[in-house]
Amino acid sequence: MKTLGVLISGRGSNLQAILDAIREGKLDAGVSVVLSNVEGAPGLERARAAGVPTEVLLHKDFPSRELYDEALVGRLRAHEVHLVCLAGFMRLLSPVFVRAFPGRILNVHPSLLPAFAGLHAQRQALEHGVKVTGATVHLVDEELDHGPILLQRAVPVLEGDDEESLSARILEQEHKIYPEAIALVLHGQAFPES
Ligand code: GRF
C-alpha cells in the first residue's frame, strides 16, 4: 500500500477529506503520519481519531529553516512515506525539503493558480473583483504555491460574498480534488466515477 505523510498547521479539514476518501475506499492509500509545526493544531485530533500517528516538530527547537526541514524529512522517511501532502501547512519549505521528495510533494491552494498565490487567496480574489476563482492541487517546487498543476476546480464569486462565505465554497471543492489528485499521482488515475 502507498503511504502518505500529511503536514498540517491548523484545522485539518483537507486532512479529514483525505482520511474520509481512504475510509470510503475511494483512495487506495494509507496515512502513515501526520506532522504539525503547531502544538495543539485541531487537525492532530482528527488524525488520532482515525488511528494515525501524529508528531509535532516546533521550529523554535531548531536553529535554522534548513535544519528544521531536515528533521521533517527524517521523520517522513522514518514513516516511509511515498507522497507528502501539504494540507494547510503554514511554513515555507526550503530547497532541502523539496529536493528530498522530487515530484512527490502536493499542495492544495484556495485559488486558480497562478492567480492569487500566497496568503489570503480568497481575500485577494474579492479585492480584485474576479467573478470566478477556485481551488488548485499542484506538485510543489521551490517557489511558493508553484509547480505543475494536477487538478483545478472553478468556483463562482457570488454577489455579497465575504471572505468567509467564499472560503467555505472553495473549501468544498478542495476537499473533492485533493484526494482525487493524490489518486492521480499514486495510481495514474482519478476516481472512476468523477
Ligand atoms: C486551505 O484553504 C488550503 O487551501 C490552504 O490552507 C487551508 C487549510 O485548511 N493551503 P484545512 O486546515 O485543511 O482545513
Jot down its keywords:
seven-stranded mixed beta sheet, single chain, Rossmann fold, 194 residues, alpha/beta, binds 5-O-phosphono-beta-D-ribofuranosylamine
Widest sheet: strand ordering: 3-2-1-4-5-6-7
CATH homologous superfamily identity: Formyl transferase, N-terminal domain
The CATH top-level class label? Alpha Beta
CATH architecture: 3-Layer(aba) Sandwich
Q: Could you give the count of β-strands? A: 7
Distance between the termini: 22 Å
Query: Which class do the helix and strand fractions yield?
Result: alpha/beta
**Residue ranges: pLDDT <50 for 5 or more in a row?**
none
Biggest pleated-sheet summary: 7 strands, mixed
Can you tell me the overall shape? globular
Mean pLDDT: 96
Strand content: 15-25%
Percent of residues in helices: 25-40%
CATH topology: Rossmann fold
Bound molecules: 5-O-phosphono-beta-D-ribofuranosylamine
Topology order in helix (H) and strand (E) letters:
EHEHEHEHEHEEH
Give the number of domains. Answer: 1
Rg over CA atoms: 16 Å
Total helical elements: 6
Secondary-structure blueprint of this entry?
Blueprint: E1 3-8, H1 13-23, E2 30-36, H2 42-49, E3 54-56, H3 65-78, E4 83-86, H4 95-100, E5 105-109, H5 121-128, E6 132-139, E7 149-156, H6 163-187
Parallel strand pairs: 1-2, 1-4, 2-3, 4-5
Antiparallel strand pairs: 5-6, 6-7
Helix pairs in contact: 1-6
The chain binds 5-O-phosphono-beta-D-ribofuranosylamine.
5-O-phosphono-beta-D-ribofuranosylamine is lined by residues 8, 10-14, 43, 87-88, 108-110, 171, 174.
